[in-house]
Amino acid sequence: MMRRAPHKPTLGYFKWALIVTLLGLALGGWVGWNMTGTMAGMATAFFICAVLAVLEISLSFDNAIVNANKLKAMTPIWQKRFLTWGIVVAVFGMRIIFPLAIVAVAARIGPLEALQLAATQPEAYARIMQSAHLPIAAFGGTFLMMVGLTYFFNHEKDIHWIVFLEKAMSHFATIKGVEISLVLILVLIFSSLLGGEEATTFIYSAIYGLLTFLLVEVVGGLLDASQKALSEAARGGLGAFIYLEVLDASFSFDGVIGAFALTQNLFIIAIGLGIGAMYVRSMTIMLVENATLAHYRYLEHGAFYAILILSVIMYVQTLMHIPEVVTGLGGAALIGISLWSSIRYNKREQVTPRDEKIRVGES
C-alpha cells in the first residue's frame, strides 16, 4: 500500500502537471512561431496544444482510476517506478516513438526517415497514421474490452453498481473463458460488417490484442510469483508494472489517432498529449494517497464501464467516424454518475471518509 502523506491540498498534487503545462504551452507556441513566423501561427499552435491536453485528460480519466486500483496493491518501490518510469514511457514512448514506429512499418521506411517525414511532410505522415487506424482500433479495442470484462466477470466481486447486470456477470464468471467468447463473437460480427481485406486485418489485429492481454496476464503472474518466492520486499511489482504499461498504451491509441484531426504536426501532438498525461499521473497519485476508490465505492465501476464503452467505440470507429469529444464526454459522464451514486450511498449509509480509511487499513 502506498504510504499516505500528511493531508495535502488537491492543488498540491498537480504542481508538476501545472509546471509542465506552462513549459509545454510555451514550447508549443515556439514551435508555431518557428513553423510560420507569425503571431497567428504561434497562437494557433498554443491553442491546439491546450485542446489536445484537455482531450487527453477527458479520454484518460478512467485510465487514472484503473491505474490507482492496480497501484494500491503494488509495493511502494514499484508504485514509484510506475509513476516515474511510466510517465517517460507514456509521454515519449506512446506520443512520439509509437506514431513514428507505425509510420515506419506502414511506409516501410526507417525510424529516422519517419521522423524526417513528420517534420517536413506532416500531411503525408498523417495520411499514413490514419491508414493504420483500423488495425490499431481492433488491437486496442480488444485489449481494453478484455480489461473491462475481466473486472465484471469475477465471481468474487461482491460490490455491484448496476445490480441486475453485474450480479449476472458475476454468476456467469464461473464459466471458463466466458469473456474471451464474448470478445470473439464481437470480433466476428464487426469483421462481417467490414468484409474483404479489411475484415482479415481486423480479425488478425483483434487476435493479437487478445493474445497480448492473455500473455501479459500470464507473464505478469509468473513474474510476480517468482518475486514473491525471492523476497517479501519484491512483491507486487514487475508483472503489474507491465500490465499497466500495456494498458496505458491501449488507452493512448485513441488519443494519438484522434489528435491528427486537429493537427498533422507530430511535435505539437506530443506536447499537447504529454501535458494531458501529466495530469493523469497526478490524478492517479491523488486517488491512491487519499484512498478515494475506497470511499467512493462505485467509482471503479464507472471507470470500467467507460473502458467497455471505449472499446466498443474503437470497434465502431472501424466502420464510421466518431468524434473524440463524444468518446471523452461519454467516459467522463459515466464516471460522474458513478461518483454521484457513491455520494448518495455514503449519505444513505452515513459512511464517512474516515470510516472507509479505517476499514481499508484493517483489510
From TrEMBL:
The chain crosses the membrane at residues 12-33, 39-61, 82-107, 132-153, 174-196, 202-223, 235-253, 259-280, 301-319, 325-343. Keywords: Membrane, Transmembrane, Transmembrane helix. It comes from the Bacteria. This is DUF475 domain-containing protein. It comes from Rhizobium tubonense.
